[in-house]
Specification:
heterodimer; A: alpha/beta; Leucine-rich repeat, LRR (right-handed beta-alpha superhelix); Rossmann fold; 27-stranded mixed sheet; elongated; B: mainly alpha; Growth Hormone, Chain: A; 25 helices; globular; transmembrane (chain B)
Chain lengths: ~900, ~600
Amino acid sequence: MSGHLLLPGLLLLFPLTTGWTASNCLVTEGSRLSLVSRLFLICPVDARLSLLALCTSVTNLTEALAAVPGSVEGLCLSGSPSVLPRDAFSNFPGLKILGLNLQLTQVLPGAFRGLGQLQHLAFLAPPLQERYLLLPSDAFGDLRVLRQLSFLGPCLDKNSSVQLPPSLRQLSVKYSCLQDVRTLADVFPDLVRGLSPGQPWSLDMLDLSLNKRLRMASPGALRGLKLGTLHLDHTKMKAAAVAGLGLQSLATLSVLDTDTAELPVAGGAPELNVGSNRLRHIAPGSLASCHSLESLVLQSTGLTELPPGLLDAMPQLQRLNLANNQLQRARLCMNETGAVAGLRALDLSNNRLSNLSLVTFSCVPQLRELLLRGNQLARFEGQVFQGLQRLESLDLSKNPLVELGKGWLASLPALRTLNLLDTHLVLSLAWDFRGPENLQDLRLQLPSGPSGAALSLPGRLTSLQLQAVSGMKLRELSPNVFPVLQTLTLDGWGLQLETWNISKTFPALHQLSLLGSSLKALCSQDTSSVFLWHLPRLRSLRVQGDRHSPRPCRITGLPSLQELTLHSLQSCSRPRPVRLEELVGELPKLEVLQLVQTGLETLSAAAFQGLGSLQVLVLDGEEGLVLDDSLQDQSPHMPQYMYLVNSFLACQCANAWVGPWLERSSRTYMHTTISQRCQLESGGPSRHPLFPFLWSHCPRTLGLGLFLGSSALLLLLASLPLLQEARSSWILYLQAMLRAWFQGVRGQRGKDKRFRYDVFVSHCRQDQGWVVRELQPRLEGCPPDGWGLRLCLPERDFEPGKDVADNVADSMAGSRVTLCVLSRQALRNLRCRLELRLATSLLLAAPHPPVLLVVFLEPISRHQLPHYHRLAWLLRRGDYCMWPKQDERKADFWAWLGSRLGRPG
Amino acid sequence: MEAEPPLYPVAGAVGAQGDQDQLGVPDGPEAPVAPLDELVGAYPNYNEEEEERRYYRRKRLGVLKNVLAASAGGTLTYGVYLGLLQMQLILHYDETYREVKYGNMGLPDIDSKMLMGINVTPIAALLYTPVLIRFFGTKWMMFLAVGIYALFVSTNYWERYYTLVPSAVALGMAIVPLWASMGNYITRMAQKYYEYSHYKEQEEQGPQQRPPRGSHAPYLLVFQAIFYSFFHLSFACAQLPMIYFLNDYLYDLNHTLYRVQSCGTKSEGILSGFNQTVLQTLPRSRNLIVVESVLMAVAFLAMLLVLGLCGAAYRPTEEIDLRSVGWGNIFQLPFKHVRDFRLRHLVPFFIYSGFEVLFACTGLALGYGVCSLGLERLAYLLVAYSLGASAASFLGLLGLWLPRSVPLVAGAGLHLLLTLGLFFWAPKPRVLQYSWVLYVTAILWGVGSALNKTGLSTLLGVLYEDKERQDFIFTIYHWWQAVAIFIVYLGSSLPMKAKLAVLLVTLVAAVASYLRMEQKLQRGVVPRQPRIPRPQHKVRGYRYLEEDNSDESDQEGERGAGGGGGGGHREDCADDALPAGPRPRADQGPCRRPCPYEQAQGGDGPEEL
């Protein structure tokens, strides 16, 4: 039963097992998007979608789409087709995001038919090229739920009256040849016309940024439009012109980098972004127009000083961004008794603040987030943050901080996140993290100071990052159990921790990042070189090396690990090729393995033994990869997705199997760079496509077949001398014995042949007495005493007048059995020898040889037998017998003879 | 039995008598010899002389056919082997080719193991070669060894460690047996040819008589000349894969010799500084398979030539006699032949004979040729050597008119001059101006090689006429050559001057030693030769069912005992090959039974009834 369930289960599990060819399409699951997101570049993607596909170098749209699984939800196409035909995507009813990075000039009506679930449609084109795109007026008529429409690159100026779907919320026209906002209104008249008379069109966002030629806004060009955000970044529009557009409402105005020289009138928008303009100075008078601002971004505006009363002028301001200016003093609050502002987020990072006066933050009790990174602060008083009762996040990183004011944290009871990286803290008696009960996320540069002192940290942290500089003394952690710590990042190694009870120190650890040299400290120093920490609940491990480790560390023994990233492990001074099994060991739950510049060279089946659950393997920046052909047999257990990003297969015949395998493999989806080429170390100018090159230059099974065939033939021929050698000796004996055996097997059946005699008795004259006395009566006598056989005795039965030799031969041929009686005299007798030889040669040569029995009347040395008579020695065991001297054993003799002559008893 | 003239074999007299004797029936009737003979014998216009003459002419033609087939088979085999080895070594030398085709397989390692197998294994050949030759017989040994050469070709279809190295070891085992049995075969053919052309004298002398000493020497000279003329062509055959296939892929000398600084006498090792890449484009595997298949087909052809066209070197009974001296004796006899001062004096020449071939192929062709002319002209250089040697093999026929030492010493003198010349010559890399000098040197070296090879083989055939030891002698000769090849293999990284010096010293020592031997022989010094034991038939065979003869062990034993045992026999049989030594009791004395050698010469005694 379970077998019946298993199969559909598998089919459901891998709905895409067929049709995946080595086309130019990259397919990934949305949840794995982060691994390969940089391949998607400008394509609109969303990690929430179940399946995403990116097809590059498309020349024939139909062919390319045939290779894409039908259940794909996000699709991005780039290539050369210029016309989008009718029903192009009718096979993808579930498509939610579609990016078209094609050189489109025309979209035919009905091109998007069937895309009822499409939410985001983007037309992309290389910027700086004037490429006009012609859209039919009802191009988007079928897209009932389209929320976002983007044109990045193509010129829309030649269109008019293109209808927009009513569900549209965001419209972007970027990198276009737009010069006047009115043109936009001509192309999409719906924007001005409204949904219906009296009901204005509303958009969450209209993005016109990056239109280098946009400089005009005809008055009333967008009259009546309800707009959330208007982006005019990197254009030549004046912020002041926005007011003339005639917008019904505007929430946010962004005029980044637009040659605005002074703080503009926001046209009523409560949020204003004037970043990257050369303001330098804000006249106090201009603040008056900003009275209603809620958010103000003054990033990178070259400010050297804040205008006095900035906060007072904007009582509703909640977010203020002053990053990347040249401020030396933060004169936000005038004095302790100033008006209280409602500011919630303040960014002062990357300024030149060297000192914080006690009153700096005295007027912003509502502040939740304060960024002070990248300033010149060396020390501050403990009371500086007095009054920031609600501050949750504080960033003091990249300051030359040496000492923290005593009890400074006590004034920040609500603090949750604290960043103290890249500081120069010294461990002193004033070291104290008491105060904030809720501190969860701490990033800390390990302080220098006297050795032996333990580093005391809050025990309720959930996330901790510790940074160590090299050469620092190892420190112990003060509480030795962090019960809720989930994320730990170690940059460099400066801790003194016992490895054996590490799972007790960090019982809840889920995510571990090891940067710099910390992996080396966690690796056993013996030859096995394995990862020492045993963390049964660890799910994610990221290792980024410092490129100085001479040998790889094997990550193994982490039963719950699901994601593993190894980055920059290759030693830059002594690079050596690494096998995958040297990097990873037994990781039964591992699903994602990402290797970036680890120096990996060989992938073989052995490495995948311990990786039973691996689903995604990403190889990034690995060059000269060799996929061992043991993987071919392993392929049912290979990860479902393999991405070779910036990685190249070595131009070696060991990789020759990969090409055909990629085309056939239905289980594993492997993405490689399309134009894998043979980069020979010294190959000179020729650069061949990899697989065709290997295909034509590598020996294949034809060579093996020829080898086996020719060597088999050769061995057969070479056995001729042996056979020839054997011809004279043992083959004949073998043949005779086989025949005797065969006759023994079917002897009972051959009885009906007519013989003149039953037994031909060959004996010499000296033995005649024995024959007459013993043999003849027993054999010829009437039953029951004798056996009633017909004997042929030479003296008696030979035909007179016939040649003796003929007589012997005929009689022998006419007898069923030839019985040779041997004694020493018989062997000296010529006729006896003749008869014996005739019998043996008949045995060897005749087609139906007679049965040959030999009776020794006396023991005869082997050497006394002539060579050919030694044939008798090769007779079967039962074919000869000794005539016993003792009377009591004669019965045995007769029994033997009787059985051989076919007489029971 | 082919020595017997069974013209119209119904010749009743012989048959009846034979029957009677074989059967040994005492009371059988006397065979009616005369009437039966008249009845079924010769018909009126039957010319017995004429028929006999035709018969022996056919026999002689058969011998010629044997020689030609063996020579052609040897040539093809060796040509295929050399050509394949050369091609594969060049391909494997190329870095790119190795990288692409064999990646992490360690091809240079395999190649060096393979060369080791080919060069080192023959050292053990002295232990088993005579045993093998006697066990299989000369012809079948040749066939088997050619088959092993073909097996080596076959494994090159599938180049792996487990194919190449074992086949190389097998090949190494087959080298000495092949060429020893080949030399033995040619010598034996010359003796047979003599028998068939002088059948009348033999009949007059009686079957027990052996031909006068050195009588077969002229035929031997001609046959060896033919053989070596063919054999040296194999070097040219080996270049055909290069010329027709590999040369299209090679870089020219400006690329390959870019970093080569010094050549000729100034060079060290083999081609130091030679470019690691020699192939412009890699040959496609299909093309390689085609080339290998052609080579394989030729190797098969060689096998079939040996199998079908080479007749047996001995009669079956002779072969049985040869192997019936006891395997222990066969094993020991090559070592016992060290007692013979002639062989001892020739050893330096044997070694030199190995040196000079390898020097032509590696020192001259690579150190002087490739180093200055580039890899693409290697083939033509070796073709020049080969053709020169092949043509000059007929110079060995000078021995028909001149003393036998003249061609040998002349070849050595030529080599001496060339070696001295090479000692002071360092051709400039990448300069083609003096390429003719190289070609002339190659041709002249070939002439010297040919004189050396033909001279030595002929000399051995003349010095050791009796067929019982020829295979030992040729085994020793080729074993020393194998030792020389091994020495060259060991010293391949020496500077060229050292190699030339070793060559020179060996050459002078060889000539001096050889001339001393000739002088001793002139003075009539009698060499000590180990006794070849009398055959002891222990073999059971059908042959004895048909013919009543020596296998009567009891009679043999009696007669052997009556003959005074081994001692008396020893003297007589051991000395039978003395060149001019007195043979005191050759015809009378205790040796009643003919020695095996005489048996062979005059038919097989009792068999001849």
